[in-house]
Write a structure and sequence with these properties.
The complex is a heterodimer of chains A (255) and B (305).
Chain A (H helix, E strand, L loop, with lengths): L6 H42 L1 E2 L2 E2 H32 L2 H5 L6 H29 L7 H28 L4 H17 L11 H8 L2 H14 L5 H28 L2
Helix pairs in contact in A: 1-2, 1-4, 2-4, 2-5, 2-8, 4-5, 4-9, 5-8, 5-9, 8-9
Chain B lengths: L2 E12 L2 E12 L3 E5 L6 H8 L7 E6 L2 E2 L5 H5 L1 E4 L11 H11 L4 H14 L15 H13 L5 E5 L7 H16 L3 E6 L2 H7 L2 E6 L2 E6 L1 H8 L3 E6 L5 H8 L5 E5 L2 E6 L2 H11 L4 E5 L2 H9 L6
Parallel strand pairs in B: 3-8, 3-9, 6-7, 7-8
Antiparallel strand pairs in B: 1-2, 1-4, 4-5, 9-10, 11-13, 11-14, 12-13
Classes of the chains: A mainly alpha (255), B alpha/beta (305).
């Protein structure tokens, strides 16, 4: 693995291009999570009423924050990276400079995580306007940190997918078979405790489950010992996905 | 002269396919060295190993006294690459393309601004500095690729088929610029399948075919050794060959029949032409021998896919 400070240069290249479509990305990354907030939060929430002593939206918002980061970071490292790699051959010209393949891929992961952070933060602002506030200022800061960590995780996982992808259609499999199921089996919309045991076990294998659990704990300021486990899973998975993603991409880029 | 690049028994395999098959060559400082060959000859694979984006399968390759390998950032820092395909950053403007690349080479901001100004002038793109890439013509894009390759003031420039798909004006402008760079002492490495381009630019060439070097040398000398000075092409039907060859036999020319044409390679083209006039053969072309003749002789006239 041949990393250097040039990761920052690759990140900066992405920022230069980002400034041209920043507003459209705001819209794109807000719409889906906003639907969740409105349909589930306000529509369904009216029937659910209170949830552990607080309105349902307090349950939903921390999950939706993480969901928006997952979506944005994943799609950036799938479609965004694929276009740069295959259609524009940008990586080819990058690795002919002192920027290594590892720097280039890590720079893209960092940028995807940044975009995830932006959409997560926007969602948080929307939630605050709706009157759903994290428990303290410290919570807000910890949440932002969590959004970055979760962004890197899902960006890295998407990189692994991209390293195999022969074309755009391939990404549909990942969205339909991994992202969408995770959305419904990770406790974003409702608690997992009424699930049969096998489904509970299954949900433990989904990184989103752990990220949502941590997010909810921070948002409400209710910390339990189980969080250590959640955090360990995220941490180990993150390091592994990052290293594997970079390695596989390098294998694809250098022939 | 000092060799700046030395390859010994260099090999490149993609799976079982041998793209480059144990080739050896030396490139001297300040010269223009050309790799010629049909598609798939192994030219691009060879230069990709030189500028360290493709690992060697076996053999040795030294660039500026350093071993070439994909993690060698020093070689990349000193090399400029004009790629075969247009790999510009479509999301960025002309100027931003260069700014971002200046970053990759650790060029300080003020210095980068200065060089970008000079380079845009050099490739005649000053008026397009704030245009998006899709507003440029192919020739402009190629020129921008040259400017980009020069940002780091490289000692070695690799131009991989730099004029493919260009109109004559754009092509001549690019040749001008490449010659100008060479006169500044830069070592130029060119791959091309245009013989005219190689004759225009290269001090020395190698002709590659199926991963191997068939011939190496100075273009004019190669032509002279392999073909002679002049070529006469006579378009006649094949049934007249015997008669014609008998009539021309005293001139001791080499000849070759390809499709509808009989090619003669003579030391004394003058005598041959006299004979041709005598025999009244109207469909005749008499011309100086070119690198294209050498190329076709060595790599065969069949289509190479």
């Amino acid at each position: 693995m041949n990393f250097s400070y040039r990761i920052v240069y690759v990140f900066w290249r992405n920022m230069v291009s980002y400034k041209r479509f920043v507003l459209t990305t705001f819209l794109a990354s807000l719409i889906q999570p906003l639907f969740y907030l409105i349909t589930f939060g306000i529509g369904m929430g009216a029937y659910i009423g209170y949830f552990g002593g607080k309105p349902y939206l307090y349950f939903l918002v921390p999950g939706v924050l993480i969901t928006s980061v997952m979506m944005t970071a994943s799609f950036e490292c799938m479609y965004g990276t694929f276009v740069k790699m295959v259609h524009e051959r940008l990586y080819d010209s990058l690795i002919a400079t002192p920027v290594s393949a590892e720097d280039a891929v890590a720079g893209d992961i960092a940028f995807a995580a940044f975009r995830g952070l932006v959409s997560g933060s926007l969602m948080m602002i929307v939630a605050i306007f709706m009157g759903i506030l994290p428990v303290s200022l410290l919570s807000v800061l910890l949440l932002l940190l969590l959004l970055i960590i979760v962004g890197i995780l899902f960006a890295s996982l998407a990189m692994i997918v991209t390293s195999f992808a022969p074309n755009f259609d391939f990404f549909n499999y990942y969205s339909e078979l991994v992202i969408t199921p995770m959305l419904f089996f990770s406790g974003v919309f409702f608690p997992l405790d009424k699930f049969p045991p096998w489904m509970k076990t299954l949900s433990l294998f989904m990184p989103l489950t752990h990220a949502v659990a941590i997010s909810r704990a921070i948002f409400l300021g209710v910390y339990t010992r189980g969080l250590i486990f959640n955090f360990l899973v995220i941490f180990i998975l993150e390091v592994a996905a990052f290293l594997i993603g970079v390695r596989l991409m390098k294998k694809r880029l250098i022939k | 002269m000092k060799a700046i690049i030395t390859a010994r028994k260099l090999c490149k395999k993609y799976g079982k396919f041998k793209a480059v098959d144990r080739i050896s060559f030396e490139i001297f400082e300040g010269e223009c060295f050309g790799f010629l060959g049909p598609n798939g000859a192994g030219k691009t694979s060879t230069v990709r190993m030189i500028h360290c984006v493709s690992p060697l399968t076996s053999g040795t390759l030294t660039v500026q006294d350093m071993a070439a390998n994909i993690d060698n950032r020093t070689i990349k820092q000193n090399t400029g690459v004009i790629p075969q395909e247009i790999t510009l950053d479509n999301d960025l403007t002309v100027r931003e393309n260069l700014q971002v690349f200046a970053h990759f080479f650790d060029i300080p901001r003020a210095e980068a601004q200065k060089r970008i100004g000079e380079l845009l002038k050099f490739v005649e793109l000053e008026k397009k500095r704030d245009s998006k890439i899709d507003q440029l013509s192919t020739g402009m894009k190629r020129r921008l690729l040259i400017a980009r390759a020069l940002l780091n003031q490289p000692k070695i420039i690799i131009a991989d088929e730099p004029t493919t798909g260009l109109d004559p004006q754009a092509r001549h402008l690019i040749w001008q610029r490449l010659r100008q760079l060479k006169s500044q002492g830069v070592t130029l490495i060119l791959t091309t399948q245009y013989m005219e381009e190689a004759q225009q630019l290269c001090d020395r060439i190698v002709i590659m075919h199926q991963g191997r070097i068939l011939k190496a040398g100075i273009p004019t000398k190669l032509i002279e050794d392999e073909i002679g000075r002049e070529v006469t092409e006579i378009r006649v039907s094949i049934d007249q060959d015997e008669k014609l060859l008998a009539a021309l036999a005293p001139l001791a020319c080499g000849h070759e029949r390809v499709g509808d044409t009989l090619y003669f390679y003579c030391r004394d083209g003058h005598a041959l032409m006299k004979k041709v006039v005598e025999l009244d053969l109207p469909n005749t072309v008499h011309r100086p021998a070119s690198l294209e003749d050498v190329f076709l002789k060595l790599t065969g006239r069949g289509l190479i896919e």
